[in-house]
């Protein structure tokens, strides 16, 4: 009998044996499973919405299958988001924007031109509550109470160095 993977002749031990070795059997399963996975991915991709909104600039963009988890419209926005937020998870960013800043996080960053208002740094930016109500249960999320700072200046404010 011939192996279905390598086509070598072999003597089967029973009538159901199709492969000459465990290696050929695993290769067959790997190929079969990868085909199943690719079909499943195509089905899942057909079910999701193909137009997304960029998390940095709010511009709408169309996604392709190989980039179905894409969050930003361009490489520029992706780098800008990494510079602004580091490598934080999107769920953390959504929570902070919605709960800790009342949905004003991106508005404050835009208003302050994505720069620290003390040292004019543009890396590792955070939003600071001027009245220090950010950690309380009811933070004051008015635009007048929020300011953009770099991480270093933010730490120094909380240490009362500035």
Q: How is this structure best described in words?
A:
This protein has 162 residues and is of the alpha+beta class. The protein has three domains: 1-47; 49-76, no CATH class; 88-158, no CATH class. It contains five helices and four strands, in the order H-E-E-H-H-H-E-E-H. The strands form two sheets. It has a two-stranded antiparallel ribbon with strand order 1-2. Strands 3-4 form a two-stranded antiparallel sheet. The longest helix has 26 residues, at 22-47.
Which properties best describe this structure?
two-stranded antiparallel ribbon, single chain, 162 residues, 3 domains, alpha+beta
Strand coverage percent: 5-15%
Number of strands: 4
Strand-pairing-aware structural class: alpha+beta
Arithmetic mean of pLDDT: 80
What strand order characterises the main sheet? 1-2
Number of domains: 3
Query: How far is it from the N-terminal to the C-terminal residue, by CA?
Result: 82 Å
**Rg of Cα set:** 27 Å
Number of helices: 5
Low-confidence stretches: none
Overall geometric form: elongated
Report the order of strands and helices: HEEHHHEEH
Largest sheet: 2 strands, antiparallel
Query: Fraction of residues in helices?
Result: 25-40%
Outline the fold blueprint:
Layout: H1 22-47, E1 51-53, E2 60-62, H2 75-85, H3 90-100, H4 105-111, E3 125-129, E4 146-150, H5 151-158
Antiparallel strand pairs: 1-2, 3-4
What's the gist of this structure?
The chain is an alpha+beta fold and 162 residues long. The protein is built from five helices and four strands.
